[in-house]
Amino acid sequence: MPDTPADEDEKRPSAEPDVPTASPSHPDAAARDATKPRPRRWCVTVAVPAVITFVLTLVRRSPSLVGHWGSTEGQDRFRSTYEAAWRDLPEPAATLDIRTDYGQVRVYRFAGKADTGVPLVLLPGRASATPVWADNLPSLLSTGDVYALDLLGEPGMSIQDRPITGDGDQAAWLHQTLESLPEEYFHLVGLSIGGWTAVNLALREPAHIKTLTLIDPVHVFDDMPWETIARSLPASLSWLPKSWRNSFNSYTAGGAPVEGAPVARMIETGMRHYTLKLPQPGRISEDRLATLDLPVLTLIAGRSVMHDAPTAAKTAKRTLSQGTVRVYEDASHAINGEYPERIAKDITAFTTAHTESAPE
């Protein structure tokens, strides 16, 4: 595995294969205290891309109608950082490239310690891809099998080749992906914009969804604060100093340092070299949330800057007919890296309670 460049000025790495070579998970992961936030090794998580996607679409105009790399060099750099971040993940049991009407979706299957028949499907935040789950997979695998995918049309190993023009298209490619997997039902877990993606699918194509788990979702239960939007603007311009992006990244992660974190480097490299051509997700209305006819677990970060936590929690409790809402008071938007064992415990209890019978 080549050394990962930390900056554009460093030597260009050689091209890497599409399928990363994974290493065993951290041996001490299960022993960490589930009641306390874990030190944030990568911290950035998915907040940055979720905020600034709209700005990037304005400043990176391109005649192409699909997401694409600006150069082969930029793509090679991303692959190098992707693989460096991947080293903290368990070895996947299978790597799948699933063809949909909108492109090829990269899906990894991880073998769990139990066979429930209803696996988890993990949806990352914007531009963060599968390595964002490095802290979570060791504990989530105790629940059962896990699929993790790279969102289509974003930096990662999925390849968009047709335009995605609206929320219906976003639901269609994900529905087709689930239909291609051997199981009939899935527990869908969405982080940040992945939470919005999960709800959007459940509202349009719920046939294969057993439950939803939404981890500090954006554009779902509250609007994004103007302060966060304003702070994101300097970070959205790739030609500005890296320190500006690091400052914003730290802001979204509750003030934690982000320099040198593998996932942070991966996200930044993707943002710098990949042009998104996706519609801006809109806030899901309360009327539509009230129509969700399946169990929903919502985990809200009490110190999230992506929404007002009390407002988001109240909206979830008010609108979800089968909702369970938990607020992690001390968590930032980097919640999945801060509380991986606690999240796994909540997800396990929730999914176990809803696995015995299939939805009508």
Uncertain runs are 1-36, 39-54, 56-60
**What does the average pLDDT come to?**
81
CATH homologous superfamily name? Alpha/Beta hydrolase fold, catalytic domain
In CATH, the architecture is 3-Layer(aba) Sandwich
Instruction: Report the radius of gyration as a whole number of Å.
Output: 19 Å
Tally of extended strands?
11
What's the N-to-C terminus distance? 48 Å
Q: Could you say how many structural domains there are in total?
A: 1
Under CATH, the topology can be stated as Rossmann fold
The CATH class assignment is Alpha Beta
* Overall spatial form: globular
Order of helices and strands, N to C? HEHEEEHEEHEHEHHHEHEHEHH
**What percent of residues are in strands?**
15-25%
**DSSP helical segment count:** 12
**Estimated structural class:** alpha/beta
**Helix fraction?**
25-40%
What's the story with the biggest beta sheet?
Answer: 9 strands, mixed
GO molecular function: hydrolase activity
Organism: Streptomyces atroolivaceus
Keywords: Hydrolase
Protein name: Alpha/beta fold hydrolase
Quick summary of this structure?
Residues 1-38 are annotated as: Disordered. The protein contains twelve helices and eleven strands.
